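Per-record layout

source: Notechis scutatus
name: Transmembrane protein 260 isoform X1
length: 693
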Amino acid sequence: MGPLSWAGAMGAAVAAFYVTAAPHSALGGDSGELITAAYELGVAHPPGYPLFTLLAKLAIELFPFGSAAYRVNLLCALLGAAAASLLFYTVVRLSGSQAAGIFAVGMFSFSRLTWQWSITAEVFSLNNLFVGLLMALSVQFEEATTAKERSKICKVGAFSCGLSMCNQHTIVIYVLCIVLWVSSRLFRERELTLSNALKLSFCFLAGCLPYLYLPISAYLNKARWTWGDQTSFKGFMTHLLREEYGTFSLAKLENGSSTTDVLLFQVTHMKMELSLVVQVFAIMACVCCAVRPKTEKSQLIWLFTSMLLTYSFFFAWRANLDISKPLFKGVVERFWMQSNAVIVVLAGFGFSLLFFLGEIFIGNSRMIYSLEWLLAAVLVTAQIYSNYSVCDQSNNKIVDRFAMNLLSSMPPDAIILLRGDLPGNSLRYMHHCEGIRPDITLVDQEMMTYHWYLPKLAKHLPGVTFPGDRWNPVEGPLPDGTITFNLHHFLKVNRHKDTFVCIGLHEGDPTWKKDYSLWPWGSCDKLVSSKVPFDPEMWVEHTQNLYNWTEEYGRFDSSSWELIANEEMWQARMKTAFFLFDLAETGSTSAQEKAKLYTLAYKLYKEIVSTYKTHPVNWHKNYAIACERVLHLHPAREDPEVLLLEIIKHFRLYLEKAAEDPQQSSILQAIKHMKKELREVRKLKKAARRRPA
């Protein structure tokens, strides 16, 4: 078998694992949005990902089975397998060893990070494919012996570079490194002529042609969900350069970890994902080329090393997210796949070098050959064994169920004001792609603040009235003629519809507080006119069983969207009780009404806490405080001794799990006070029993 046949076999093996583990539904993050953009032929968030969108649309139309999400997930799995093939080909051409290729690709493809993000509808598996393709072409260019061969490879490479830029822009670092290296090589060979440069530029621009999809989609304006208006040059460049996020930044207005912290965490993370063995072999490859600079393929090793270092430093500098927060760490780590792909190629070369040296010193080539294959097989098998159960997402429907619960809980013809990636992307996917609750209208809070949102999408939001062109707390015409409106005005003109916010309301516009209140509705809230009287018993009955949620609390990884969805569903169980308690604490109501609210909140807390053994830690604290308030109401039906015991017990349970609470000293003082009260209550009970009847 030649290198191409081996590469195909390796890709097929990876595909077999990926396809069986692929989820049948949309997962968290950008997955729902990317699928919806493809399904609707709209434009995804900046920079638009036109190539992925078009490929995903083809998969949705051509694959004959499964939901839209499953079809795009399968596409990504196949792209990830193709990336594995290209990386295998690169390592084998570098090292001459199939075992080294299997080792490198197995450690990369079956790492938790790569596996997880190669089987869900995200742009990372396509980016991995381009990383593998550019490195494979670099190897071919280095091996080319004639000007004609080099010219052909350069044209394919230039086109591939342009095409890769139609997906994830982080690959631009690798593109620049390779372009500089190829240019210097062509210059030395006296092949870098103006004519060749123009031809290569043309090939690069031809690769960028998928970006024409953006203005075409924006001009047709058929998609019920799209991002931005690319019909003008300014709008196109705004989207292409990610100006709404911050060009060369991961997020807008975020204060992230330092460059040093990100780099150190990347090295540690690499060890966890790929193992120390991979790092050692990669260093070994670099050391070998440093000691013997004229080693065959040393130029490629230095090229790949420069790509790795440049990308790692640049990304660490621009990754403006706080990686101490699990969810942000999960966002950042996905971009380390691009560097991990290079690391394993270097490690593959180092792996083969070890056995090459072993053959020189030991001399028994058959034994060395067997050991090489045995070590590769053991390491890859261990990688698969370690990560399969974690990466098997075939039964993961958490985010789908989250969205289904939210949508099914809504009354007919409701408006949902969306906020955040989890509710926004998951509800959009279920609503637009799966046709769930077509009577409901989804309106994005953040998008309403953008100048393009309503002009582009208002016609796709029937039954909703927008009293202007753009949401802004300060109403009135802007210098460019745009008419702004605030939330109060929006609610007023849409008072004939029930309006909900999921999850949370934009803090910048408090105008709604003038005539409206937020009442809890599971994970969401309902905006209700202040003129409507609040009946606590009725509202409890109305919202107590909104959702059908059976997932255990705390069983998901801290950096996963599944954990966020599960957390929202669990906190929703306590939300009405918390609302009633807060209303009693802050509302201007009578003493009798306060007592009623406290008692009702206490009963809800008690029922919830006693029903679930494992639950959010703050429930203990909330329940203990509710018991304390009821204790001082002196209710006839509640035994003060029982209430005091509950307060002490649940405050203690809370402190066991939340030792860093800044109110710890106050809680300990409260426990001490409650113990004193408990002794007094027991004394009174004892005295009462001794008293003659």
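summary: The two ends are 100 Å apart (CA to CA). The beta strands are 415-418, 441-444, 470-471, 476-477, 483-485, 499-502, 516-521, 524-529.
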